[in-house]
Amino acid sequence: MSAQAERASAPAPDRVAAPRAIALVGATATGKSALSLALAERLGGEVVNADSMQFYRGMDIGTAKLTAEERRGIPHHQLDTLDVTEDASVARFQREARADIDAIHARGGRAVVVGGSGLYVRALLDRFEFPPTDPQVRARLEARAEVEGPGILHRELAAADPDAAARIPAQNAKRIVRALEVIELTGRPFSSTLPTHEYEIPAVQIGLRLDYDVLDPRIERRVDHMWDAGLVNEVRSLEAAGLRDGVTARRAVGYAETLRHLDGELTVEQTRALIQQSTRRLARRQAKWFRPDARVRWIDAPRDGADVERAATDALAAVEG
Fold first, then answer.
1. Rounded Cα gap, residues 230 and 235, in angstroms
2. pTM of the full predicted structure?
3. CATH class of the structural domain 135-193
């Protein structure tokens, strides 16, 4: 029996007896990464990334990925797992990140999950079964999305499954294609396959809230910092590595706009402003995703670096409460 087959047939670990994973969720730029380090240091923890864009090797500046030095010696998992030409897979992430959490807890550590990619967080923590897939059906739908635009496919989704269409932004071609693929293959609404609010991995979710009058200027400063830190050169390097061929990576906020700048469509000022606008919209979508989940325990996000320890104390109180 192969090693992969042995792992697949091995009994599931006793997760009931394991400590609860701590998941830090919420909008981009609310301080999740800084707080994750503070919690990991206090708890002897290790970080499991659940930001889908931080899976990509070389996508560092534009995703605000912590450098090795900034990680302060704390082990980080699910970073730099994909080339930019590869498509991120929720199923693969679920399998590998759950294995990371089990291993962290088996060594006596505490898993701290960090990310604003709501679907990936839900797939990791909750009961989530994956419906079938067909490469030919998906390729046909992806080709239509490229030629016709995702808006037309989103209207088709709205007619077939209004609940799914209400949850999926009209610009998110990847998720629209997946929803239509599942509907075609199963004959059932895609929304019926979405995860329930029932933990598979024992966990507590801590949400970071921050008023938009504070968050929006922070986002603008972050984009300015990314630009000054060399975002354009990073995108040029990734372009040479096949970024334009990647279905997922090339659409990431910051990277899609910078590719348009390199194509001469946007000036520097237009590009920076568009990235800021796109990031603000992303923050609102992320907040909207997590807000309805009654299991999330909300605390005030750290307002600056000096406020991280206060936020860590509040987070631990929420974990223990």
1. 9
2. 0.82
3. mainly alpha
